[in-house]
Amino acid sequence: GNLDEYHKLVKVFAYTRHSTLDATATKYTTEVSPWIQALSANVSSLGITYRDLVTTVFSSDWVTAPNPRFVRSYTTLVLQIVSAHPEWVPQAMSSLARWFTYGGHHKDTEPERVHSHVHVLIQEIHRAIPTCGPSLVAALAESWPFRAIRANVQVVYVRNVLRCLEYAGGVRREVLQMVLNHVLQIDVEVQVELDDLESDEESEVEDTGVFEFEDEEQSDAKDGDQSDAKDDESEESGSDSDSDSDSESDADSVTSDLGRARYNAKKTVAKLDALMSTLLTWLERHCHVDEQTGEMSESTSRLFLLFLDLFDTVILPTFKSRYTQFVLFYFSSQNAEYSDVFLGTMVGNLGEPMRSAHDRVSSVTKVSAAAYLGSFVARAKFLTPSVVRSVVGVLVQWANTYMDWYEEQDVQSVVRTYAQALGAPQAEIERHVVFFAVSQAILYMFCFRWRDLAESQSGGPIVETELDSVCWCTELEGLQRIVFSRLNPLHACAPAVAQQFASVASQTNFMFCYAVLQQNRRTNGYAGDATASPDLALRNKLDSFFPFDPMALPVSRQFIDGIYMEWQDVGDEPDELDQREGRDIPEDEAGVMEQIVSMSISPVPPLSALPGQTF
Predict the structure, then answer these.
(1) Is 265 within 8 Å of 193 (Cβ atoms)?
(2) Cα angle vertex 163, ends 159, 167, to 5°?
(3) Which of 50, 500, 545, 609 is the S-S candidate for 605 at Cβ 3.0 to 4.6 Å?
(4) What's the CA gap between 541 and 426, in Å, rounded?
(5) Confidence of residue 388 (pLDDT cuts 50, 70, 90)
(6) Contacts of 390 (CB under 8 A, 6+ apart)
(7) Lowest-pLDDT range, 26-30, 381-385, 508-512?
(8) Burial letters for 127-158: b for 16+ Cβ neighbours within 10 Å, e otherwise?
(9) How many angstroms separate the CA atoms of 592 and 570, rounded?
């Protein structure tokens, strides 16, 4: 045909809302409407030969048109094209997915109406071509905004991506995996930025000390002989002024860099909070209870199993994740069976003790699973005492079975290993790192949940002022053997966990193990001092991984606070915890809390402690 007329037709459809050409939405609607009818009548001809025309039809900003009738006609045309020529589906999906960020900028008008048009068309395409799922997933991945993009754009996009699951259930796994991966990447980025900020602040403290010392000398000079000071200034004016100028410039540079780092950290934290709250809100809407049975609906249970599988493959292997895992924490709280399944999955990841060095699950995964078990049981307020006791019993049995296997080894190896354990070389801790991780999980759970592991002699609730008569559950039998074993887990565990366990066990008359800590301290000076350890890098695997440390994201934590167990000192009644807030903490109590705060996923200050941090 006539190429000039063809190119004119392509130009008719080439409308963008930001175009500098003399083309308004009304004018565009008027000019394009007749052509929509013409193309609809000849849709079978719109194959690869007319790539330019079809691509322009897809990429036009037709969804922003104010005329509902025009939008319906355009929707029908696009649907007819992809139905007649399925090869155009990927192109159509890509052109539609780009609208999922619309509304993230102030200049975007009526985003709900635009999003509605887009979702209607995607749903119609999915209904007409059920095999279009991979094209939708590819389009969503291609259009996903970069992590550095502002939070509003990210949130709008994630909301629309999750909305696709209402009609495209076949791609649920792929879509949720993309969402979790994206949140996880920002989560890790937050931890990296906070680590860098902490390092910079430490450097600033050192530098500030030097500057303050110089200022004190200058102040003393001013209090002395003014004439001598003037003479000194005049004699050294050249070198001193240059030195002072350089020092002030360096100080300003450090302050400026720290200011930018704090600002970037705050933005990233706010972005993570917005995305986490978006995902938790979506999850809350999809946790349905069957009205007939009173149990969680089958669709909700399937969704939980999907999230659990994604957790196992995406989140569990990620060391620096701090908040993304709270999605599973929240979901598990919705039903007792969900938390049982989660705990069972983590126990399964530990595997058999005797085969821990030979099975296919890596030691890193096993250590992470142990950390999640300990942190989940310690912090999940919704777990019943029977569940707490069951998990403790399973882990105690696991550790004792491991020691049985270990003690069956060559006697000379045992003696050598005991001597090495007191010195705690890196190779020896690495060899038994899963055992140490399981032991630490047990000690950590005891510190938080000892009340659920004890009962009075009469079988009733314990009275914390009468702990001499406490009876301990049978699941704890064997823990004393673990603590005082040749492997010496108190030496390999995080110092805060070891010392806090010794304190709580002593206060509750459960066990007295301060002698072990003292022996460890005499051996190499490590007890309570992480910097003195020769195997600090490996020990950090245990020291710095407590996955369910307190949630510090102000919006997201509203989903977590009601199901989260805070630290409670021995002797405190449950209702006294809230009363502690707002009063001065005694020095001895502050020491205990300082130890608990140190049980953190990474050695960084709480987000609320960031200078200038406000939400």
Answers:
(1) yes
(2) 170
(3) 609
(4) 12
(5) very high
(6) 475
(7) 26-30
(8) eebeebbebbbebbeebbbeeeeebbbbbbbb
(9) 11
CA atoms within 13 A on the CB side of 574: 10
Contact 480, 424 (CB under 8 A): no
Q: Is 325 in contact with 545 (CB distance < 8 Å)?
A: no
CA gap 425, 100 in Å, rounded: 54
Sign of CA dihedral 365, 369, 370, 376: positive
Q: Give the mean pLDDT of 295-299.
A: 88
Residues 6+ apart with CB under 8 A from 238: none
Closest alpha carbon to 204 in 267, 256, 266? 256
CA–chain centroid gap for 16, Å, is 39
Q: Which two tokens stand for residue 305?
A: 């199993």
Amino acid residing at 576: E
How far is residue 303's CA from residue 288's CA, in Å, rounded to a whole number? 11
CA separation, residue 309 to residues 176, 197, 314, 327 (Å): 11, 34, 8, 13
For residues 615 and 612, what is the distance between their CA atoms, to the nearest angstrom? 10
Q: 497 and 443 in contact (C-beta within 8 Å)?
A: yes
CB 78 within 8 A of CB 31: no
Nearest Cα residue to 483 out of 459, 508, 456, 516: 516
- Convert the pLDDT of each residue in 457-489 to its tens digit: 766 667 766 777 788 899 999 999 999 998 899
Longest Cα–Cα distance in the chain = 101
Tell which residue, 594, 610, 493, has the closest CA to residue 552.
610
Q: What is the C-alpha separation between 349 and 346, in angstroms, rounded? A: 5
196-204, long-range: CB within 8 Å, 24+ apart, which pairs? 196/261, 197/258, 197/261, 197/262, 197/265, 197/604, 197/610, 198/603, 198/604, 198/605, 200/254, 200/257, 200/258, 200/261, 201/258, 203/254, 204/254, 204/255, 204/258
Region of 462 (left: φ > 0; alpha: ψ -120 to 50; beta: rest) is beta
